[in-house]
Design a protein that fits this description.
2 copies of one chain form a homodimer.
Chain A: H1 8-15, H2 19-26, H3 34-46, H4 53-60, E1 65-70, H5 83-98, E2 102-107, H6 115-121, E3 127-131, H7 138-145, E4 150-153, E5 164-167, H8 169-182, E6 188-192, H9 197-212, E7 218-221, H10 226-240, E8 246-249, H11 252-264, E9 274-279, H12 282-286, E10 292-296, H13 298-313, E11 321-323, E12 325-328
Parallel strand pairs in A: 1-2, 1-3, 3-4, 4-5, 5-11, 6-7, 6-8, 8-9, 9-10
Antiparallel strand pairs in A: 10-12
The first copy, chain A, binds a DNA duplex (30 and 30 nucleotides) through helix 2 and helix 4.
Chain lengths: ~325, ~325
DNA sequence: AAACAAATTGCAAACGTTTGCATAAATCTT
DNA sequence: AAGATTTATGCAAACGTTTGCAATTTGTTT
């Protein structure tokens, strides 16, 4: 900060024009002669000029900022460190930047629960992207009905007054289960928490696949963390022995928890128990055995999220959308 | 958004006082009588009032926003999805919120390389937290010497004109190596990229421990990703066979890459090769065998980062600081 | 060359806060 | 009870942009 910050008026004086002209020139407004525009833009660059966004936002009533809220349930151990959630945030960041928007990061216990007020009325952001539906959609519902431009990463099939973008969880659950079945598994566990919006869809897919195969469903309901999965499988093995030969886990982290419990008891994966996860996090490819998983196209989803948010800001009404999923076939389910 | 946004003047009219009074009351300014303050604050709450931050920022020249920049090298594959980097961001977010600050997330290829201008002169943020030194400190140096309030997560021992907070990487490397030695390993590989600031310190620690034990150092220099580690170890095994019995990996993700290569060849961990990672990410506890690792105290570091940034904003000069590390002893190194 | 249209630029008023200073009301002094 | 303090409020000017409108310059038409 060599000297005091340059403002539009200073540039104007330097160039011998009015501030309006400089403002328009820097915004590439065709009202200004091309020649003057070029000259002023160069001058700005030369002096390292940059607009005061506070002033600009005040005047235009636009921020070009999007708030991203990581929406965790109060009663889960699933933490803000969950690799998948953070991966999504990373992707959304990229997508936003592509559209010239900035990302204000928040977790769900920020200031108040009143998102409309905290983010929008206060002109902190133009819109909100919520990552994760959680178990309760009350906060989201409230914000949406207050007219806040809002999109959600979650399960698109959930009926809602706001657009939800997410994977076809039902299909994911179904494909994963069918894959296990076709690899010869007969007794397949569902490992996860069917109370959770997205996971309940995966569970439905699982059930349908199981029923069609005339097999018996068996749900181990746990909090969606690796340690809960580890404990859950361990306990099951202690109490009932190896009463299953396949696991469809509701996330990769959960799958790894299960994998650990199995390995510790020298139960072979995939020979004794075939395993499929969900999310396809980086670790899935590196674990041994590598973990078959349902890959969510987070990159594409992020772009769609941003596009839908922009559409809302432009006054259009938008709908929920499913992004395709894909089974990544690795060792843990192969036999 | 039922009706038009309430502003300070509207509240004032409702209460029959001036805007100055409302402004002061909401900021808990003792100039205003306690009674009036209470009354106005209640009124504000009742009407869901919230300040226009744009106006406020323009007037006060403060934003209460901190930009967090994930500073990746251009030439590494280490991605924005690296669990450890994102973990740190999560922790920083928590720490910032604790101090009433907000977090503007950016990656290093934002708008321009001129951070001083882009973030500070434009009044987007009051200060910057840089996560990761990367190989080149040019950007950071430039911003710091422009007088930008700035703190860096990195290696605190790097000489610098700006404060760096980070783990005692030298000690970490040393402790990890000594631990491997004391578990009977004789030929210990260092797996990582010694060109990288933080990792070079870990490497120094490794070297000193090796030399003191009169053992022979052996560095496998790779990009700091799991897949590079996997390939690196694989290649080494192909070319020279099992010429080592311990690995000190520069990160957990790298350790997992190595682990996979070893497991695929039925090399036992820890019996044939003992392994220690760095970062103690969630997965370290869940892998099988579980991964011994040097745990960085990211939570404490985050708080310190924020405190130091605030101190700078208050005009104080601050210094780099080391946060303690800890060896988490798990199966991968135990024999 | 006058009258008109089109292309450029400038003027000045917002946007909604905060805050130094002046004022008004309440309390204290003597 | 009138001045001197202290306490509580209001006035009005900033903060740095953007933008409708007016004004000027330039080019075109008759």
């Amino acid at each position: 900060m060599n000297d005091r910050k340059l403002k539009l008026a200073d540039l104007a004086k330097l160039a011998g024009v009015s501030t309006s002209t400089v403002s328009r020139a820097l915004n590439d407004n065709p009202l200004i002669k091309q020649e003057t525009r070029d000259k002023l833009q160069q001058l700005a660059k030369k002096h390292n000029f940059s607009l005061n966004t506070a002033a600009s936002r005040l005047r235009t009533q636009k921020t070009n900022v999007v708030a991203v809220i990581i929406n965790l349930d109060g009663d889960t151990e699933q933490s803000i460190n969950d690799p998948f959630l953070l991966k999504i945030v990373g992707e959304i960041n990229l997508a936003l930047n592509k559209f010239g928007l900035e990302l204000l990061l928040s977790n769900s216990f920020m200031a108040s629960d009143d998102w409309a007020n905290y983010f929008i009325n206060s002109r902190r952001a133009d819109g909100i992207i919520v990552v994760g539906q959680g178990k309760s959609q009350a906060n989201i519902e409230a914000a949406a009905s207050a007219g806040v431009p809002l999109v959600v990463w979650g399960d698109p099939k959930t009926p809602s007054s706001y657009p939800i973008v997410g994977s076809d969880n039902y299909l994911g659950g179904r494909i994963a289960t069918e894959h296990l079945l076709s690899n010869g598994a007969k007794n397949i566990l569902f490992l996860g928490d069917p109370g959770h919006a997205e996971i309940s869809e995966r569970h439905r897919g699982y059930l349908d696949a199981i029923n069609e195969a005339k097999a018996t469903p068996h749900v181990v309901s746990i909090d969606i963390t690796s340690s809960a999965a580890y404990k859950g499988i361990n306990q099951l093995l202690v109490e009932k022995g190896l009463c299953f030969d396949g696991i469809m886990a509701c996330s990769d982290m959960v799958a790894f928890g299960a994998m650990k419990a199995l390995k510790e008891r020298y139960i072979s994966i995939p020979n004794d128990v075939a395993l499929v996860g969900f999310d396809d996090i980086a670790m899935a490819d590196i674990s041994h055995p590598s973990l078959s998983s349902i890959k969510q196209n987070t990159q594409r989803a992020s772009v769609i999220l941003v596009e839908k948010l922009l559409a809302q800001l432009a006054g259009q009404s938008v709908e929920s959308q499913v992004v395709e999923i894909e089974l990544v076939n690795r060792q843990s389910s192969q036999r």
